[in-house]
Design goal:
This protein folds into 2 domains: about 40 residues; about 130 residues, Metal Binding Protein, Guanine Nucleotide Exchange Factor, Chain A (Beta Complex), CATH 2.170.150.20. The protein is elongated. About 10% of the residues have low confidence. The strands form 2 sheets. It has a 6-stranded antiparallel beta sheet with strand order 3-4-8-7-6-5, covered by helices on one side. Helix content is about 30%, strand content about 20%. The chain is an alpha+beta fold.
């Protein structure tokens, strides 16, 4: 009986170890894909050399005073709005989408597309310096989180199932964005 219990425990530990290795390998693969995609995007598109946006750091209390409860929940606490409910999901105006917290320019309306997911989707940011990405292993999934390069606000996630020319889908919460309409010239 003890021998059988020891074998079962050993097999269970081996199983858990295998799962951990698989997850770690998946994280490394996603990190490599993100780096490779970013490098190829930079090589394929003419981008002006831009300076890194100046970092904005505020206390939790300051952010709560500046943002609505919904904006705070999404941008500062990594929340997500329900699909198909966001202000910018079906939005078609021409201009710039900015970070709701700090005004950092994030996406041009020209890079927005209808992904059918229920969140505003973009195939590229204005600049790779204006957004940051990191691995998000919450909720039992491995995804690439997108944050503001200036104030670290949670914006959403980026996936490798977008349209050409980048193949990326930046799936962004409307509550993390503001919009500035392009002035007619």
């Amino acid at each position: 009986m003890v021998n059988r219990l020891m074998k079962t425990c050993s097999l269970f530990i081996l199983f858990l170890f295998s799962i951990i290795l698989i997850v770690c390998n998946k994280v490394k693969t996603i990190e490599k894909q993100t780096v490779m995609t970013t490098e190829s995007n930079s090589a394929n598109f003419d981008q002006k050399e831009e300076r890194m946006p100046e970092k904005i750091i505020k206390s939790d209390e300051e952010w709560q005073r500046l943002l609505t409860p919904e904006q705070y929940k999404i941008a500062r606490k990594k929340g997500t709005e329900a699909p198909f409910t966001g202000k910018y999901n079906k939005f078609k105006e021409i201009g710039l989408f900015q970070c709701v917290c700090c005004g950092n320019e994030l996406f041009r309306s020209e890079s927005k597309f209808d992904s059918g997911t229920g969140w505003p989707s973009f195939w590229e940011p204005i600049s790779e310096q204006n957004v940051k990405s990191s691995i998000d292993a919450s909720y039992g999934m491995i995804r690439t989180e997108v944050t503001c390069g200036r104030c670290d606000a949670h914006l959403g996630h980026v996936f490798h199932d977008g349209p050409p020319p980048t193949g990326l889908r930046y799936c962004i919460n409307s509550g993390a964005l503001t919009f500035v309409k392009r002035k007619d010239e």
